[in-house]
Specification:
Blueprint lengths: L4 H8 L8 H11 L11 H7 L4 H15 L10 H34 L4 E6 L2 E6 L8 E5 L7 E4 L5 E4 L1 H4 L5 E3 L4 E2 L4 E4 L1 E8 L5 H10 L10
Antiparallel strand pairs: 1-2, 1-3, 3-9, 4-7, 4-9, 5-6, 5-8
Helix pairs in contact: 4-5, 5-7
Length: about 220
C-alpha cells in the first residue's frame, strides 16, 4: 500500500480506462482464472492415509509381533496387547482424520465466500461479468453489499467501510481510504468506489489463506 497508485498502474501496464477484452484474455492465460479449485478426495482413503506414517508403522509392527510371536514359554500370542495397540492406532487415526476434515470444511467455507459476479471496465464500458475473468490491471466498481472479487487498490472517492472479519478476524468493519488495499472475500458495508485489481485467484490474500487451511497437514495426537 506504500506504492503510489500511478506506480501501480505502471507496474501492471494498465490505465484508468481499463483493459481491452483482448488484453484481458491474454492476461487470463498468464494468471489463470480468478477462482479457487476445491480438491475432491475419498474420505475413506484419507482416513487410511493416517495409518501410513512412521508412528503408525511402529504400532502396526508391534501389533503383528504380538500375534506372530509367542509370549515365551510356549504361551499363545498376546491378543490383549494386539487389541490394545489396534485400538490406539484407530483412535489416533480417527482424531487426526476429524481434525483435517474440519480444516477442509473451513477451506470450503472460505471458498464459498468468493464473489460470483462483479462490475468491470472492459473496452471502455462498464458491465457485469463473471468474477472468474478478472485479471491484474482490471478496473472494478465496488458498492454497498458487494463481495470484493479480487485483491485491489482503491482509486479516488469516498472511504469505504469493509467487513473483512472472515479473513482477519476483526469484529468491526474497517475504513479503507483511496490508495489503500482491499482483500478478495471481504464485503463492502458502506460507500462506492472504483479500484484496480492487483491480484487474483490463488495469489490473493484470500487464496493464500484458503490454500494454507486446505493444505494443513495435521499430525495425530500421539505423534504430538
Amino acid at each position: 500500500e506504500n506504492i503510489p497508485i500511478e506506480e501501480v498502474f505502471t507496474a501492471l501496464k494498465c490505465s484508468r480506462e481499463g483493459l481491452t477484452s483482448d488484453e484481458g484474455n491474454k492476461r487470463l492465460e498468464i494468471f489463470g482464472p480468478n477462482k479457487l479449485e476445491e480438491k475432491k478426495e475419498s474420505k475413506f482413503l484419507k482416513f487410511l492415509g493416517f495409518m501410513w506414517n512412521p508412528l503408525s508403522w511402529v504400532m502396526e509392527s508391534a501389533a503383528i509381533m504380538a500375534i506372530v510371536l509367542a509370549n515365551g514359554g510356549g504361551k499363545p500370542p498376546d491378543w490383549q496387547d494386539f487389541v490394545g495397540i489396534v485400538v490406539l492406532l484407530i483412535i489416533n487415526s480417527t482424531i487426526s482424520f476429524i481434525e483435517e476434515n474440519n480444516a477442509g470444511n473451513a477451506a470450503a467455507a472460505l471458498m464459498a465466500g468468493l464473489a460470483p459476479k462483479t462490475k468491470v471496465l472492459r473496452d471502455g464500458k462498464w458491465s457485469e461479468q463473471e468474477a472468474s475473468i478478472l485479471v491484474p490491471g482490471d478496473l472494478i466498481s465496488v458498492k454497498l453489499g458487494d463481495i470484493i472479487p479480487a485483491d485491489a487498490r482503491l482509486l479516488e472517492g469516498d472511504p469505504l467501510k469493509i467487513d473483512q472479519s472472515a479473513l482477519t478476524g476483526e469484529s468491526l468493519p474497517v475504513t479503507k481510504h483511496p490508495g489503500q488495499g482491499v482483500y478478495s472475500g471481504s464485503t463492502c458495508k458502506q460507500g462506492e468506489i472504483e479500484a484496480v485489481v492487483i491480484a487474483t485467484g490463488v495469489h490473493t490474500f484470500f487464496g493464500k489463506a484458503a490454500h494454507l487451511v486446505d493444505s494443513t497437514n495435521n499430525i495425530g495426537h500421539f505423534q504430538k
